[in-house]
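Repro:
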Amino acid sequence: MNPIHPDWRRPVDSFNDALTRRQFFRQTGTGLGVAALAALLGDRAFASEGTPSALSAPWRIAPKAKRAIYISLIGAPSQLDLFDYKPALRGRFKEDLKDWLANQGERLTGMTAKQAQFPLAPSIYKFAQHGKNGTWISELLPWHAKMVDDLCIIRSMKTDAINHEPANQLIYTGSMQNGKASIGSWLSYGLGTLNQDLPAFVVLHAKHSSPFSNVQAISSRLWGSGFLPGQHAGVAFRSGTDPVLYLNDAPGIPRDLRRRMLDGLEALNRRSYAQIGDPEIQTRTQQYEMAFRMQTSIPELADMTGESPATYSLYGDEARVPGTFASSALMARRLVERGVRFVQIFHRGWDQHGSLPRDLASQCKDVDQACYGLIQDLKQRGLLDDTLVIWGGEFGRTVYCQGTLTETDYGRDHHPRAFTLWMAGGGVKPGIVHGETDEMSYNIVKDPVHVRDLHATILHLLGINHERLSFKFQGLDQRLTGVVPAKVVTPILA
């Protein structure tokens, strides 16, 4: 006991009981008052679609789409062999581009910087025109050719990064630095959820069929919440009938006992929050409650026996095999159909530094029909108009060959200056091509679209002003599009 002050207590107790201005507003905004409101209004008290609290957020604008599916092709598919047709290059086979590259001021990776020659490698694949506008599509993507009138193809994407890890972080989190929030987390934070029984942001990892592919490692940073509250992080589902581990009740624990355990834990967490004011305590409680509800919703979601033979024929036979890209695409439709805000499918193995004809053909076979099936399935169910689908990698591939070049075999290095990405549904113009590259698919000559512009456009289509959606962290107003100016790509908007 302190003889000077009879009410002396341990400093930690005094700290916990002290109510700062920030804690006062946090508690009054999330404490008993809001609990009472929730009891009166039910789900309408939460920031779900169409509620006053969601629509009144300062960053909200009229949306074109309610949800999005992002097909992330890790490793970077070659635009020269799929979408960016350059027939004139075939007469320049093996031309050394060393002097030409020196004049471009191009950064070279450590994999090709010391090559004695940089032989030009034209695509060996045939291209043909498809759709109402005669869009050029490679023979590697015959199913894409059938749906080209549904696609908005952007041939003029560019990025700042030349290596995979920083490029992936830039395109999926808006920054090459660690610790930033992913695009799915921003959407969950900015828009709220469309359902109460599944996460707002779900991640699927699809198998790649080529065992010999150069498979890039990826980390949870690409779907993490960074500085945003943890509840907005992507939830990675596994393939098979048990997508989320440890959801089932332990043997001998009946459902009503589990409910009472969670209620007791919530009461303890509420007391801790009242003392400390740490929002992560609330996040943990919300995660427990979501897991409890998912014990019912996940088994129903994972049970695909109700899908019709016609649906499987759309996606292809591999849709019946858990973990394949086709199965993941079908699962993505089931998720958005049930109110998941953002679904991200990661498909690795697109890093063709060598043996490109062998590996690229296999990768395209993995995704081609399933992408067609996804778009047609969404369209048939009336979901495509308000579901935005994005397809692409983190950068492009070089016109010159990495390693040995033959008439039937070649590889391509990383190329940040120009690559191709497509979007569909959700408020974008169908059947158009935006942007243009030079004769080498090397520099953009018309309508460049930076990764930050892509982010601004995605947010705009989903009803968010990218300049106003921010989160205070370390004294800065953090944004997905950062502080460098970004613009919405208005010519592609429907």
